[in-house]
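Margin note from the TA: students keep mixing up input and output lines. Inputs are the sequences; the output is the structure of the whole complex. Example:
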Amino acid sequence: YLISLSFQQRIEIHKLREGENLILGFSIGGGIDQDPTQNPFSEDKTDKGIYVTRVTAGGPAEVAGLQVGDKIMQVNGWDMTMVTHDQARKRLTKRNEEVVRLLVTRQSLQKAVQQSMMS
Amino acid sequence: KIEPLKVTVDFLKVPLGLKKPPLKEALAALPGKPKSHILERRKSRRSDAMDNESQYSGYSYKSGHSRSSRKHRDRRERHRSKSRDGTRGDKSVTIQAPGEPLLDNESTRGDERDDNWGETTTVVTGTSEHSISHDDLTRIAKDMEDSAHLDCSRHLGVALGAALALLAFLTPLAFLLLPQLLWREELEPCGTPCEGLFISVAFKLLILLLGSWALFFRRPKAFFPRVFVFRALLMVLVFLLVVSYWLFYGVRILDSRDRNYRGVVQFAVSLVDALLFVHYLAVVLLELRQLQPQFTLKAVRSADGASRFYNVGHLSIQRAAVWILENYYHDFPVYNPALLNLPKSVLSKKMSGFKVYSLGEAENSTNNSTGQSRAVIAAAARRRDNSHNEFYYEEAEHERRVRKRRARLVVAVEEAFTHIKRLQEEEQKNPREVMDPREAAQAIFASMARAMQKYLRTTKQQPYHTMESILQHLEFCITHDMTPKAFLERYLTAGPTIQYHKDRWLAKQWTLVSEEPVTNGLKDGVVFVLKRQDFSLVVSTKKIPFFKLSEEFVDPKSHKFIMRLQSETSV
């Protein structure tokens, strides 16, 4: 039998200023108004959470340790598991915030723990 | 010791011949008589004999009336003479289907066939000298049944019905005429109302005549084993009606010499009205009631499992049986006994293990022999395990062969059809070159004959198509400008029985076997069997389910759709 552990990681991203905008350097997909079956990263295809779909190389997100496929649970204390796609984007791109603290869940973490526990 | 009967066969008589005559000979020797298989010949001989005994009755609804009483007597005698098991409660009755003329070409040709039939014929029956085969038994039974024929009873029924109809028709006229003839001087004159009534009587009688003609004057499609309940009921009703009217007429009018002629005329008009209403009742009972479907009948052929479903209304079992038979002849593919058996290579292996003879052993050694036979049977069962493998490969091989032959046939026919074309009006051709359809058919038949023969033999259809029949069909197709594909349609798929020669129909041999009396109506779960000599049709009834339809209204404007989103935003 598999032990299901949810390891959560806290990631702190410092936004980069590019002209007028503050960018974080990754792309998100998902949301409660989206089609969850198209999500390639989720294990459960009814999961409507926000997932990281791309991470630009060398960007602030990569530097902070964010990886493709991470599910974002919280952003600066705001819950991201039951938000629409646009709400998620807005919470990440607030103009007055320079640092965002994300709580992410990663599948690879789970598998590593399972493997180490079994061996 | 069992010795199978063996006689040598003269295979020249098998259709299209196993020998392959050169094409010219085939063309020249167009036989005037069809050649048929041995078994079929026996059956056709029997059917020819029966043709001479069939009779028509012009009044379909009167046929059954007095048959029942006669039939009971005859059946009791037959029960005594044959050992038929009526103990199970099965009532076995015969349906005779007429429709064939008394003497047609086939019956005379049948005699010729018998004369020309070679003295030497091989029939491997597998029976001993001391037993009769099942065929013989059933043939004897059939002959006995046919000899105790019920023509007299049928004629009696028809005559009775006709007499009753005539009586009913003439009664109003008699009512009108009798006062005029007997006491004309004493009658009060009645002017216009009477004339109106006369006209109405005349037209109503005419309508009654036409209606009766439409409803009753029909060639019966089958002779039913038992009296048709509704028809008997109607006849009784008409009889009672007429008798009571005569009674009242006799007492009230004839005896007292009523002077009021108008009353008499009105009396007659009321009788005609009553007769018209009886006719309406007849229409409803005989025709309309059965139209709305109530039951689904499943008919399964016992020989090869071909099945069909039919929807019928409220019918008695015998009428349902005739309905099924009518549909059988155009729905079911023709019964081909050659297709039923597994190929010999498969079967022979199965049969080899079972011959266990115990030759004259004493009783104390029976235990040993049963033990031994059981061991042999068990060994044979184990050995049988590979026969499915052979069956599979044999079937695949056969299918491949059929497809190859079929391809050759299609190509040959297509090519043959390109050799002729229709003569247009404007073209002027040498009269010697112009052919009629028969000659055209003969001209192109030669090129496709061999391919056709091989194909028919592979699909085991050759007893059903003689050379003459193929030529006739070819002539037919040429006359009607059909394409080769249309010509071939008849040979590539096994058609329904009615497509083939009358000899194959065997329409007079059906027997209805039923556990319930055959005049009972159909109910859910009724099963009856239509037996013929070589197979039977098992028919089971199911009631059509009761549908509860509910309504749901859908606003056409309520059909709205959105896109499935899967957006990706970079932040």
